[in-house]
Design a protein that fits this description.
Layout: E1 3-6, E2 14-18, E3 27-34, E4 39-46, E5 61-63, E6 68-72, E7 76-80, E8 86-91, E9 99-104, E10 110-117, E11 126-133, E12 141-147, E13 153-159, E14 162-168, E15 181-188, E16 194-198, E17 209-220, E18 223-232, E19 240-246, E20 252-257, E21 266-271, E22 277-282, E23 288-292, E24 298-299, E25 305-311, E26 314-320, E27 323-328, E28 334-338, E29 346-351
Antiparallel strand pairs: 1-4, 2-3, 2-29, 3-4, 5-6, 6-7, 7-8, 9-10, 10-11, 11-12, 13-14, 14-15, 15-16, 17-18, 18-19, 19-20, 21-22, 22-23, 23-24, 25-26, 26-27, 27-28
Organism: Candidatus Aeolococcus gillhamiae
Protein name: DUF4394 domain-containing protein
Length: about 350
């Protein structure tokens, strides 16, 4: 059985943090951190066993408007409340033989599931997705059944009644990170029809250029940060690049542009929930910098490892191997929080759910 501990329930949202990002050993912790800079509750769970030929590592947790859900072992999904109460909510038997990912709807009623099987021959990789009720297997709808590179698709959250699917490749690393995600698809939970495509590159490249498109940071309610670059084959042409805020309809807003070599002034950007600004690392100094459309960049003058936005004015950041901090972006003030192996954690999202 998992173990949990808790303190007083905080005012405001909490960051959902997953420890043991390298997935060494047998367990990991889910830690909820409040905007006041304290651990609200944490629980220890079993890591799923590595499956045959597995290279991709998918998210272990999901959040609704009031609960956090986490995978305990191969098949059991449990809930965790900010008050520290845990419960077994669903068992998915297929997780014993497949790589499992899931996302629970904001109202706790529905769950989107993907099951991926990797083969020694990548052309024989397979993946399928479905949605059904959390409480039972009723109202089951099959959403997709794919092979080869198209097998790598998994839910990362819900936007209203639609499911936000990450679309990736044969990769390693935490499944919500830009290193694993090539794009996001918004799909109907009723029939799997695609509603929108977010931060996806062209299916075929133009003859005169190479266009690269990739997500940055975590998806939030306002969308996701996206890098788009154009590298032209003509040596006399000017390369171009843009840091974009892309919403869940696919509409983009430019927050930064590249120089003539195609080099952007910022990287590792995280879009704020309201989509009006990003927290980025400045090239050169690596200082945490807030950028927004039509405004001068705000350099905070310090280096932090951004983990994600907790709300419109608070970031969870890494300081060193033993310390996290909650940073107030309007003042630059940071409240430190001691956490063992703080450099080996991922922020998976917020509770309430931010998509």
């Amino acid at each position: 059985m998992p173990s949990a501990s808790a303190v007083a329930v905080p005012i405001g949202p909490v960051a959902v943090v997953v420890t043991n990002s390298s997935r060494q050993g047998a367990t990991y912790d889910v830690v909820l951190i409040g905007v006041q800079g304290q651990i609200v509750t944490r629980v220890t769970a079993k890591l799923p066993l590595l499956k045959a030929n597995q290279t991709v590592e998918l998210p272990l947790v999901s959040a609704s408007n009031d609960l956090v859900y986490y995978l305990d072992g191969d098949t059991d999904i449990r809930s965790l409340s900010p008050s520290g109460v845990t419960a077994l909510v669903k068992t998915i038997a297929q997780g014993s033989g497949s790589i499992l990912a899931f996302a629970v709807s904001p109202d706790d009623r529905r769950i989107a599931v993907s099951l991926i099987n990797q083969a020694s021959d990548p052309n024989k990789d397979s993946g399928r997705g479905y949605v059904e009720d959390v409480a039972a297997t009723s109202n089951h709808v099959d959403l997709f059944s794919n092979t080869a590179a198209d097998a790598f698709r998994w839910p990362v959250g819900w936007h209203g009644s639609a499911i936000v699917d990450a679309v990736g490749g044969n990769c390693s690393g935490y499944g919500s990170s830009a290193g694993c995600v090539n794009a996001y698809h918004l799909v109907s939970s009723a029939d799997g029809a695609r509603v929108a495509t977010v931060c996806e590159g062209p299916a075929t490249q133009p003859a005169n250029a190479t266009i690269n498109v990739s997500p940055n940071g975590l998806p939030v309610s306002g969308g996701v940060a996206c890098v788009k670059t154009f590298y032209y084959n003509d040596p006399n042409a000017t390369n171009a690049g843009y840091m974009l805020a892309v919403d869940w309809t696919g509409h983009s807003t430019t927050l930064a542009t590249a120089d003539k070599t195609g080099q952007l002034p910022y990287g590792d950007c995280y879009l704020a929930p309201g989509a009006a600004q990003m927290a980025c690392s400045a090239n050169g100094s690596q200082a945490l910098t807030l950028i927004s459309a039509g405004a001068s960049p705000h350099n905070l003058g310090r280096r932090y490892n951004v983990l994600g936005w907790m709300d419109a004015t608070h970031l969870l950041v890494g300081i060193d191997s033993k310390t996290l901090a909650v940073l107030t972006t309007t003042t630059g003030a940071a409240v430190s929080l001691a956490l063992a192996d703080a450099d080996k954690v991922d922020m998976a999202g917020t509770d309430p759910d931010a998509l």
